[in-house]
Amino acid sequence: MNDAAILEPKAPDMRLDQVVKLAVMAVGGQGGGVLTNWIVDLAERNGYAVQATSVAGVAQRTGATIYYVEMLPESGRQPVFALAPAEGDVDILIAAEMMEAGRAIMRGFVTSDRTTLIASSHRALAVSEKIVPGSGLADSSAVAKAAGESAARFIAFDMEEMAREAGSVISASLFGALAGSDALPFEVETYRETIRASGRGVEASLAAFEISREAAAQGRTPTTVELDKDAPAPGGTLPPAATPVEEDAGPERMAGPDGMLREWAKLSDRATALPGPVAEMARVGLRKLVDYQDLDYGRDYLDRLDAILARDRTAGGEAKAFEFTATAAKYLANAMAYDDILRVADLKTRRGRFARITDEMRAPEGTLVQVTEYLHPGSAEAISVMPRRLGAWVEARPNALRRLDWLVNRGRRVRTDRLAGFTALYLAAGLRRWRRSLLRHGREMDHIDAWMTAALGRIDSDYAHAVETLKIRRLIKGYSDTHARGLAKFDKAMSGAALVEGREDAADWTARLIAAALKDPKGEALEGALQTIRSFTTAGSA
């Protein structure tokens, strides 16, 4: 071989070490594009050549998007930049939400030898978390732990809340955190100049920027409490409005005529007088049902609980801290506060709703906010709000049912910021005073009675199984198609619980049925669990 043909290896180009590689991971609507534009302007303002690209997810509002920026001190020559981030080759990773940080870690963009990870600790639930029938909430603390181990530096706090307090959006907070991290060799004033040059919402953006910059400069990372404070309640629990109240929560926190407040005080005292484990949940359930319907409905709830408690005592429930009655207090309240058209209309026309929407939209004072409700009622919903006899009559006649469906089954857009749209929903909400006489209510009460009878029928022979039977009710939620799917799962789980009745492990198998039903929306896991139960119960009876 000709020695002259042998090429000497080229020395590495030290200028490559000056390329700063930055990725922003955000969900559509979080201002990732605005943040990227600010970073580009910032780099150019400081004499850097810069390139930005984005890879949008395929989902509503562009889904989860990766914005990628490379920058290099200007040298007069046109640099060649990469179009997308590579594993192990990102200097700064900005995540607009905690699970986006987790996604970045899983994709290998975050490394312990070089990456500064900046993330907001708040949560924006992914579709995969929302579709789970039970609690599909991912564990933010696990992501934070992994981030602390995977990144060279980890800075995280609730930047969404900071932006909200300042009247701005999270992109301003993320920009401030980037400045506070000192991950880029730029003066803080150039960040401010970039925001001022944007020309929109400057004062609010600067306020959010400064608060976040100071927090990042302190190197803040989230605590477990901070990660969990905004987390939705697990599936099957009472909603946030009905979470356990403090010991001093009483009639003074309610508003209304004096006579009604006196009646509320009596009901509240009744709930408080129940055994300790029961009283806490009974107060929550009572407040929920009085809000849902009226004082008489709350009284019916307590009457039911008194009867259940008496049976629980007879079955030796006191030694078990009245677990049966406490569980019944929780799921009975949810069952009695079923979702229907009247409830939806009531929630959409409450006084505080429009102020909350205006606040969430961060609309400046004097701005007109339009609120459009997207409704699609079907014949089933229409029949449900008919008087029992009329509804049953229509339901039993296919021709009448088809005509009704043709009349109502169409999408509607109702502007509740206008008098006509608001009045229509307000009148629908007002029908709740006649709710007890409607077809849907009668069927819900019959269903509750059958469910409670089945549970009480097991309390003497198998206390644990009776408690698990009560918990099957958590499978039912929502309205329309969601309610129908939940009801189908409930029926299957109840049938499985009946098959294992009398076995020593009946409670365990019923708990497995519930877990399987909550595992996936299609119900395949539940069907598999039922087949397993049928295999040994049928074999045992043969």
UniProtKB/TrEMBL annotation:
Gene3D superfamilies: Pyruvate-ferredoxin oxidoreductase, PFOR, domain III. Pfam families: DUF6537, POR. Residues 28-211 form the Pyruvate/ketoisovalerate oxidoreductase catalytic domain. Residues 218-251 are annotated as: Disordered. GO terms for molecular function: oxidoreductase activity, acting on the aldehyde or oxo group of donors. The keyword Ubl conjugation does not apply. This is Uncharacterized protein. NCBIfam families: PRK08312.1 (NF006179). Residues 232-244 have a biased composition (Low complexity). Keywords: Oxidoreductase. InterPro entries: DUF6537 (IPR046667), IorB_Oxidoreductase (IPR052198), Pyrv/ketoisovalerate_OxRed_cat (IPR019752), Pyrv_flavodox_OxRed_cen (IPR002869). Residues 278-494 form the DUF6537 domain.
